[in-house]
Amino acid sequence: MTKQELLKEIKNALQRDDDIAEDMELESIEEWDSLAALTLLSLYDQLFSVTFTMAEIGKCRKVSDLVALVGDKVS
Amino acid sequence: MIKFQKEDNYLVTGASSGIGRAIASKIIELGGSVIAVARREEKLNELGAVSEVIDLSAKVDDLSSWMLDLAKKHGKIKGLALSAGVQETVPLRATNLSKARQLFELNYFANLALAKGFCDKRVNAGRGSSMVFISSNAAISGMPGLVNYSASKGALDAAVRAMAAELARDGIRVNSVLPGFVRTEMTEKWGSMNGPTYFEEMDKKYPLGIGRPEQLSGVACFLLSDSAGWITGQNIVVDGGGSL
Ligand SMILES: NC(=O)c1ccc[n+]([C@@H]2O[C@H](COP(=O)([O-])OP(=O)(O)OC[C@H]3O[C@@H](n4cnc5c(N)ncnc54)[C@H](OP(=O)(O)O)[C@@H]3O)[C@@H](O)[C@H]2O)c1
């Protein structure tokens, strides 16, 4: 999967109209909340068969941190 | 005081871990015989009962005839305690339908097939036989991320009432137990997902604290026993007051 495809997956998981960019702060994204974090856990499990903890997701500050979690799996 | 007879066979699924294992141990402690079912043989063998190693979700269509084979091999079965199950926390928006069906395959359809096998008079021990399904308090109280899991347990609870009505004429009782949060392998996984203070936080949500598997085994054995001879079709919540 390419980075652009992943960003689209994250955008859809957040049910967001506008695109997201790597440099965006998660706090500035209206749709980012605990249910969105839980959704991302499921998404990564389904896409890459990797299980992250809520604590690991909680440490992410920017969209790029979310991407970095699966950095070795995107091109 | 509940007592079982050595010649009374109880088939317990999920007997390799957690609640199922505690039920199997309790039946043995009370004098009964157990056919212990799960995938991990070495864990089952620790019980010192008869072990039957099977992946219940891989063989759903064969489970009813498998029960007939078991009855031929080990003798008729007096009771079922069906604890094998999986829990997945998946928000609705992330639901993948084929994974959702897989969860139902184990949590609902495998149990349905085992119940079908058990209602065969060549399998059950006749009047006084009984089934106990391990459901969840998630079937009666909504929690984010548990849409499909809750539905699988709600399906079981509804089936229990209909089965009880259908099988009463044969003297077979059917009930379910709805546990709240119990510390087992299943919840250890959630603990590592949710961070170090998770168990403490859950403990505070339960008036009597979170549960231990042994706090479910007594109720399951009671329901399997003749002491519960006039109880059928019930969904019994055992959750330390968690759903109050
Ligand atoms: N713990 C709780 O807080 C809680 C609360 C409410 C309801 N429940 C319900 O209680 C039941 C037992 O849960 P638990 O907490 O004791 O979980 P657990 O410790 O994870 O045990 C699950 C059992 O199911 C067996 N199992 C899983 N998949 C199987 C398969 N495909 N084929 C055969 N066996 C399978 C496992 O054995 P192998 O891995 O060896 O196959 C294991 O013995 C479940 O139905 C669960 O939904 C639990």
Write the layout of secondary structure elements.
The complex is a heterodimer of chains A (75) and B (244).
Chain A: H1 3-13, H2 34-48, H3 54-58, H4 63-69
Chain B: E1 9-13, H1 18-29, E2 33-38, H2 41-45, E3 50-53, H3 63-74, E4 77-82, H4 97-118, E5 130-134, H5 147-167, E6 173-179, H6 185-194, H7 198-205, H8 214-224, E7 235-238
Parallel strand pairs in B: 1-2, 1-4, 2-3, 4-5, 5-6, 6-7
Helix pairs in contact in B: 1-8, 3-4, 4-5
Bound molecules: NADP nicotinamide-adenine-dinucleotide phosphate.
The site of NADP nicotinamide-adenine-dinucleotide phosphate has 28 residues of chain B, from helix 1 and helix 6.
Descriptive account of the structure:
The complex is a heterodimer of chains A (75) and B (244). Chain A has one domain: Non-ribosomal Peptide Synthetase Peptidyl Carrier Protein, Chain A, CATH 1.10.1200.10. Chain A is built from four helices and no strands. With 75 residues, chain A is an all-alpha fold. Helices cover 51% and strands 0% of the residues of chain A. The mean pLDDT of chain A is 93. Chain B is α/β, with parallel strands linked by helices and 244 residues long. Chain B is built from eight helices and seven strands. Chain B has a seven-stranded parallel sheet, sandwiched between helices. In chain B, α5 links the parallel β5 and β6. In chain B, α1 packs across α8 and α4 runs parallel beside α5. Chains A and B meet through α2 and α3 of A and α6 of B. The site of NADP nicotinamide-adenine-dinucleotide phosphate (NAP) has 28 residues of chain B, from α1 and α6. The site of NADP nicotinamide-adenine-dinucleotide phosphate has 28 residues of chain B, from α1 and α6.
Summarize the structure.
The complex is a heterodimer of chains A (75) and B (244). Chain A is mostly helical and 75 residues long. Chain A is built from four helices and no strands.
